[in-house]
Amino acid sequence: MARAPLLQLTDISLTFGGDPVFQDLSLVVQTGDRLALVGRNGSGKSTLMKVMAGLMEADKGDVINGPGVSVGYMEQDPDLTGFETLGEFATHGLEPGELYKVERAGEGLKFDPDRPVATASGGERRRAALARLMASEPELMLLDEPTNHLDIEAIAWLENELKTTRKAYVIISHDRAFLNALTRATLWVDRGAVRRQEIGFDKFEAWRDQIWEEEDMQRHKLNRKIKAEARWAVEGISARRKRNQGRVRALQDLRAERAGQIKRQGTAAMALEAGPKSGRKVIEADGISKTYGDKVILRDFTLTVQRGDRIALVGPNGVGKTTLLNMLIGREEPDSGTVKLGTNLEIALFDQARAQLDGDMSLWDSLTGDPDMRVSGKADQVLVRGTPKHVVGYLKEFLFDEAQARAPVRSLSGGEKARLLLAKLMARESNLLVLDEPTNDLDIETLDLMQELLSTYDGTVILVSHDRDFLDRVAATTIAMEGNGRATVYAGGWSDYLSQRGQDDFSESVVKSKASEPKLERRAKAQKGLSFTEKHRLEALPDEIARLEAEIAKLEELMADPALFTDHPVKFQKATDALLERHERLSSAEEEWLTLEEKAAS
Hints:
This protein is an alpha/beta fold.
């Protein structure tokens, strides 16, 4: 006998005073479903989840829970009003014999139950809400961005819990690796409609692109038909005294059909432009250490950052990643050791706390009031990489509409605040990008665009992130902060770090064991001929050489265009300079690799 659905939405319509968010939407969630709920920022994913949870009432339609089915919902901004501590909130509604479940979830998610609600950060509140949901074990879990503000170990714990549960769940997340590992079907919110496909998120983008390709083909056919019918209507006037009114009405219907089509939202028109070249050595940290009270953040750490490096800092929350980042760029002094910044540095910083944004300012004032973006005598323009632009036009490039320009920053969603901060950061030229948790709240399309921009950015990048897929796509070097002052440098991104650390599956390692010290010691003994820094350079150089070769090939392809010199002389000169510089760096890297190889073999 077929079981009743856990949740059923029928003919749901919802409007917030303008265009409908959803219209005649129907969907079903079955026992055992593992669903990714995906769509662009602002498409209505969180709104739909609130409707599913019964926290928001639709204008029309029905939301029906299965008989006896409990639905648990973790929202992005949980309301802890009326609770003194995070533990009091997380255990609310549980029987005394079930309190251990919150303690267990709290250990995995790393939240302090004794923390007063009044002093808890947004991330701590979210972790408490997630622990409460996991402990209550509802038949259907609705999870809105559950990995935001979790470190990689906590994400791995949650991933393992969801892999092994028999409960159904729907997940909104920007974390590709998390969605790839957990989902078996996808709900796609797109322009007020929701499509379901029995595929995990790993196959979603191919399906989405196929749908869009078919749409484009149908739109092209419709445009051709309209053009042909319009030509008939005009050219036939002289040949007929009376038009075929049926065909005229059909033409009007075709035009109405085209006008009624909802245009897809494009990607943000983000762009990065490197300023003047920095010196070859960007940062040189020698034996730096840092302690706060009894807590050792860093002990005797040495690192050289070269121009063009892509370096990621990873580790648990609270281990000191942001502190190390601030020491490397001169915003904080080490207790011992030295940090030397290279010459001609232009630093652009993306701050995870969004401290550069004033919630009471409008988006307009946030841009025009920035000293780096102010255009003298022009209250409605901002300076974008040296070129004045109208403030509304620039905001539109980052997917804000004109009505939002005068709205306060505090009214923005997390993803919109991240885009506004990117708009400020990308308006200036730079040669050192410092990105502290840039991936939080951004949709996957914007993450893809940022990754593409970083891969072609002609400068140096240092970033902190818990997004494993993003780390693999961007980082060429990973610094793992492992606690007790230890920071270890690995070549490559997240997967390379795991491989070198001796762990193929990090989620299993978190659950079973964290011991990797003996393997690291054996590896160090195997290359006694090299210093620690030399060993790291030898491991990193092959990837660096391959990247330089790829960049040279791309530049040579660009310069093969005979019209480039005559039509775009400035662009031609920049490409020529870049090509010479990369050939010089390639020659230097190859020479360094040969020297280190000979030393390692001796």
